[in-house]
Amino acid sequence: MLQNIAIGQYVPGHSFLHRADPRSKLLFIILFATLVFLANNTVTYAVLVAFTLYAGLLSRLSLGYILKSLKPVWILIVFTIILHIFLTKGGAVYFQWGWFTVEERGIQQAIFISLRLGLLVVISSLLTLTTSPIDLTEGLERLLGPFGRIGVPVHEIALMMSIAIRFIPTLMEETDKIIKAQTARGANFTSGSLVKRAQSLIPIAIPLFVSAFRRAEDLALAMEARGYRGGVGRTRLHKLAFSWRDAGIAAAGVLLAITIGWWRA
Amino acid sequence: MQITFDQVSHIYGKGTPFERVALHDISFTIPSGSFVGIIGQTGSGKSTLIQHLNGLLLPSAGTITLGDTVITSKQRLPHEQRRNIGLVFQYPEHQLFEETVAKDVAFGPSNFDLPEAMVEARVKEALEIVGLDYEKVKDRSPFHLSGGQMRRVALAGVLAMQPKVLVLDEPTAGLDPMGRQSILEAIYRIHQEQKLTTLLVTHSMEEAARYADYMLVLAQGTIALQGKPDEIFMQAERLRELALDVPETVAFVSRLNQLLPDKESLPNSVYREEELIAHLLERLSVPKEG
Ligand SMILES: Nc1ncnc2c1ncn2[C@@H]1O[C@H](COP(=O)(O)OP(=O)(O)O)[C@@H](O)[C@H]1O
Ligand SMILES: [Mg+2]
Q1: Phi, psi at residue A225, to the nearest 5°?
Q2: Ligand 1 in contact with B71 (CB < 6 A)?
Q3: β-pair partners for B217
Q4: CA nearest B173: which of B53, B42, B45, B52?
């Protein structure tokens, strides 16, 4: 029942996108987000949509599965569409009923703004779908490395993030198991008054906390036993390295930026 | 309670890239009162199978019949029926949560609206079945007990619901040999006394041989073998293919039979340790002749 939540939704694979360096993917997303906000006419949006579809192909995941990432935001998208259709005025009038009109600019803005939202969500899910959380935090750590010089504990933050991400699936599995075990003992989480239902969470929360603390203790002990002392002087097992793929991504970024810059109104 | 699985399949994460067929076309019938050993490698689908028994998982296809109740992909198990099926998960001590042992054991029966006096009687009885002294442990925190004691408390928590079917997922995992033996003996005793239908998931052939009167051998989500233990143990070759071993007693008998002339060979039905010892002693005690 809990598998449906998409956190750490990484799908292992060997596609172009999977094998590209997380740093270039992260930098590209920042660029892409900027370009999405710069796009302002049919041509530029068409270019961005076409590019996103192509990136989807490069991930070798099914399009349907990628588009599922839109599920959490579809209400927002629908809301945006309705708002723009009703409230944005200008251009030809397509429909009139008393004071109520649907006008050209309203339709246009509805399409553009919802596309903007959709593109941002899809492209960032392409990142999380093709990059393991560990790679992702490592990429972040390296990109933020320079801030370490001004006293930001970059390594510690990155470590905390990777541990948290690493344990999300474990804790979800654990939660699933505990819910099942208490259900088997007749617990009922879905009926009764609000107070009753809140109370019924206790048999889940307590074992979950106990197990989280047990895991944290075990982990701390295991790390210490293996000589972990913080970030200073640590070497890496897997060194991130740029390859021709990252050159490709950089080239695509430059090309995309020029295209959008040229054609935007 | 008779339990029937008819062509049951279960698929995890249907429609995602993580889709995984955990059970495929499982069919068997367990008569009421049996003690069934479910055996198989890690990942063979044992835990998935038993979670179907009280409707925690619904089959993706096929039908499960528990007594008169039918479970299919669309038909859930009614809440009141749950108490008839006592499911003890792997490492059940990880689900303890109450302040005191007595309160924790009472959680199950209280969920089925039993009168308080009755709940207390059941708690007492259940703790005693698993070999804990009610007066001594009832007010202690379950988190301050030893691992083995916690396991017993968790088991008592399920027994206190007085189920008709008892399902145990590797109840001895992580215990020392003494602890294993005594927990299994307690389970076997209550199985006999209360005429339960019991399903024991294990990956120890010895445990299965000792208690089971029927066995299901799972491999990669299908039933590789099923039958009475002696029928299963006869297929030593097949078991080895499945990376399982026959119990030591069976291996011993077959080695002995290779040495003995045909007409003196031991029957395959002697595989329980005590029976084997008794059998051998009887053979060895040469009748005194004048
Ligand atoms: N909640 C789940 N989600 C997805 N796959 C699962 C889940 N639980 C088990 N599986 C998979 O189903 C298969 C059978 O697992 P399980 O029933 O736990 O086997 P066993 O208890 O025999 O070790 C395994 O391959 C496992 O990875
Ligand atoms: Mg298991």
Answers
A1: -60, -25
A2: no
A3: B39, B225
A4: B42
> Ligand 1 pocket: which of B20, B204, B244 to mutate (most atoms <8 Å of CB)?
B20
Residues of chain A with C-beta less than 8 angstroms from the C-beta of B17: 11, 61-62, 65
Domain segments of chain A: what residues?
Answer: 2-131+241-263, 153-225
* The pLDDT value given to residue B288: 63
Sheet holding B20-30, edge to edge: B20-30, B3-12, B61-66, B69-71
Q: Does ligand 1 lie within 6 Å of residue B90's CB atom? A: no
- The per-residue pLDDT for range A39-93, each reduced to its tens digit, is 989 999 999 999 999 999 999 988 888 888 888 888 999 999 999 988 888 888 8
Contact A127, A29 (CB under 8 A): yes
Q: What are the backbone angles phi and psi of residue B11, rounded to the nearest 5°? A: -120, 125
CA B80, B85, B90 angle in degrees (round to 5)? 130
B79: nearest CA partner in chain A: A186
ipTM of the modeled complex:
0.86
Q: Identify which of B66, B95, B83, B85 has the alpha carbon closest to the alpha carbon of residue B8.
A: B66
Q: Which of A1, A2, A3 to mutate to test the pocket of ligand 1 (most atoms within 8 A of CB)?
A: A3
Taking the CA of residue A118 and the nearest CA in chain B, the distance in Å comes to: 21
pTM: 0.78
Instruction: Give the residue whose CA is nearest to atom 5 of ligand 1.
Output: B12
**Pick from B160, B57, B67: nearest CA to A185:** B160
Alpha-carbon gap: B114 to the closest alpha carbon of chain A (Å): 12
Q: Is B48 on the interface with A (CB under 8 A)?
A: no
Evaluate whether A215 touches A168 at the Cβ level (below 8 Å).
Answer: no
Which amino acid residue places its CA nearest to atom 12 of ligand 1?
B22
What is the 3 state secondary structure string of chain A?
A: CCCCCCCCCCCCCCCHHHHCCHHHHHHHHHHHHHHHHHCCCHHHHHHHHHHHHHHHHHCCCCHHHHHHHHHHHHHHHHHHHHHHHHHCCCCCEEEEECCEEEEHHHHHHHHHHHHHHHHHHHHHHHHHHHCCHHHHHHHHHHHHHHHHHHCCCHHHHHHHHHHHHHHHHHHHHHHHHHHHHHHHCCCCCCCCCHHHHHHCCHHHHHHHHHHHHHHHHHHHHHHHHCCCCCCCCCCCCCCCCCCHHHHHHHHHHHHHHHHHHHHCC
Closest ligand 1 atom to residue A3 Cα is: 3
Task: Tell me whether residue B88 is exposed, middle or buried, using C-beta atoms within 10 angstroms of its C-beta: 0 to 12, 13 to 18, 19 or more.
Answer: buried
3-state secondary structure of B145: coil
Are A208 and A178 a contacting pair, CB within 8 Å?
yes
- Using the predicted structure, report yes or no on whether residue A5 has a pLDDT greater than 50: no
